[in-house]
Design goal:
Elements lengths: L5 E8 L2 H12 L5 E8 L17 E8 L10 H16 L5 E3 L3 E3 L4 E12 L2 E10 L18 H15 L6 H11 L6 E6 L4 E9 L5 E5 L2 E5 L5 E4 L2
Parallel strand pairs: 1-2
Antiparallel strand pairs: 2-3, 3-7, 4-5, 5-6, 6-7, 8-9, 8-12, 9-10, 10-11
Helix pairs in contact: 2-3
Length: about 240
């Protein structure tokens, strides 16, 4: 398979996503670019929470130029997470699950996280997809887990190929829904912890709707979750 992307490999950087945002703003590349590093000093995730990594982590971001008129779907985050999930399944052996909106877990905890941002300029637009994967066993923090070692170049090849095959707009929503239902970390009607900026409570997980929003029933009221401001966790 011939690569139609570039790879920038860095020894250390504050954030691969921040690096690519600056890079594409200055250079306006038309070819997608992966940026990876051995050491990331100021990685960040949802709500700018610190992104913790170690020497075994797979740390990278993908800058994906967009055509004019591209419309972001509420399902985009779930779609890209599903493609990463499929790619990891081809390179590792333990069962992996999807957790709304775009995390990947195994039976022990979180193994991968993703943050999708945009660069929006008058004459240029790109997605910046930041990904961190716990690989190997050293230095995994509480509540997290890891996958067995894999070749990062092989992941780039598979992940990019799946994006090219499925596209970012015209993919099958039916297939996406079926994939999430088959690999969802939560069962429908499972009691979960529902954590918002204001408080934490419990509710019933009702699955994901056609707009990519998670549905939680709390005391008879259905809450519709559409952003990383809220989170769902296992009720232990």
């Amino acid at each position: 398979m011939q690569a139609s992307y570039e790879v920038i490999s860095l020894e250390t950087v504050d954030s691969t996503s921040r690096y690519l945002k600056d890079y594409v703003t200055e250079n306006r590349p038309i070819k997608p670019i992966f940026c990876t590093t051995k050491i990331q000093t100021s990685g960040y995730g949802q709500q700018k929470r610190r992104w913790v990594t170690n020497q075994d982590s797979a740390i990278f971001s993908l800058a994906y130029p967009l055509e004019a008129g591209f419309e972001l779907s509420g399902l985009l985050s779930l779609h890209i997470a599903a493609l990463l999930h499929q790619s990891l399944n081809e390179l590792t052996t333990a069962p992996l699950y999807l957790k709304w909106p775009n995390d990947i877990f195994n039976d022990q905890g979180k193994v991968a996280g993703m943050l999708i941002e945009q660069v929006l300029k008058k004459d240029y637009r790109a997605l910046i997809i930041g990904i961190g994967i716990n690989r190997g066993r050293s230095g995994v923090i509480d509540g997290s887990s890891s996958v067995e070692p894999f070749d990062l170049d092989a992941l780039f090849e598979r992940f990019f190929h799946k994006i090219q095959q499925a596209g970012l707009q015209n993919y099958s929503q039916l297939e996406l829904n079926e994939h999430w239902q088959a690999h969802d970390l939560f069962e429908v009607n499972e009691t979960v912890r529902f954590i918002s900026p204001e408080k934490e409570t419990t509710g019933l997980y009702l699955g994901i709707n056609s707009e990519g929003q998670a549905l939680i029933e709390v005391r008879g009221e259905i809450r519709v979750l559409s952003s990383g401001l809220t989170s769902i966790r296992k009720h232990l």
